[in-house]
Predict the 3D structure of the following.
Amino acid sequence: MAASDPGLAVEVARTVKTRRRMSPRRWLREVGWRHLVAWLALAFALYPIAWVITASINTNDTLTGAQFIPRSTTFHNYTALFEGCQWDAGLPPFTCPGTQTPIPLFMWNSIKIALVASVIQIALSALAAYSFARLRWRGRRVGLISILLIQMFPQFLAFVALFLLLDTLGETFSSAVQVSLWVIAVPLAIIGALVAFLAARSDWSRATKRKAYVVAGVAGGILAWALIGQFADTFWPFLADYKVTLFPKIGLGTHTGLVLVYLGGSIGVNTWLLKGFMDSIPTSLDEAAKVDGATEWDVFSKIIMPLARPILIVVFILSFVGLYNELLLATVLIRDVEQFTLPVGLRLFVEAEYSARWGQLTAAAVLGTTPILVLYWSLQDRIVGGLTGAVKG
């Protein structure tokens, strides 16, 4: 573009020449101070992270005697976190019997709870956002304002109510309803075989047949799992007589109760974010689809959801990180050490005044950040696009 516009090319050349002639004092007064502020802000943000990393490999296991640049280093703080844990390919894929601070189990609990709660939050928020953005019904504006006002109250105000509610639910649903894998595998195998037979004998499209064969394959895999479990006492004990939970236990000290509490925490904010993005999608797409005979569910699932994928990823990341780092509710509602999440489990390293393990605490904190880093690095290109669309909406 500069080559086709002579005036712009002359202006660019003049600007470059002026910058070259700029004196150091003028550069520092007009430009350099911005770089200085940026570097100071970056150092201020990275210093705590660097200090935690160096403290995790420091042989000095005290907080006051720790140095930013340790005199001697060791990785014993990391290896000590896995002592007593063994791999058994179950769910979770490891056990830590007799370990007071099973960090791998704490990380598994945090990832499991944050993942399940985030997925359900996205599903509920997307449905609510679509109804507010696309449907017209009485009380829609009042509902939006009510959701916003409810989010203004801090979550810890409901601690007592949530505690009593889960305590009551624990008396009603005190035990989980479990059945043998055979009860699920046999009906699924029959349905899968029937679907595969219909797909082979009918004139369905290639994509529909492929989905039918996938369903049949999954049903066959579950049946094979049940068959292997009958002869797995020696090689895979966790497969033997595997139980399927039809209805989990709900109450204090259960992950199910904690997930149910988390579901009501950020749905309002997520609904507003998703609604803002959906408002930026032209309504002409909906109208064209409805002219062709599409239903509201078709519009939502086949048009709105694919176009809203960037903001869905952003909402998932925000929800996952927030729930992964949540401490207050998990501290109140979880009691058993094996049920602890990572933020709650980290307190066990510093509960005793004269036997605090600061080196292992910092090592566990560094390991605990790996799921979030992996999530950000894998989806970082979607974050800016999703938030930009939400702000425009």
Summary: The longest strand covers residues 243-247. DSSP finds 17 helices and four strands in the chain. The beta strands are 86-87, 94-95, 177-180, 243-247. Residues 177-246 form one domain.
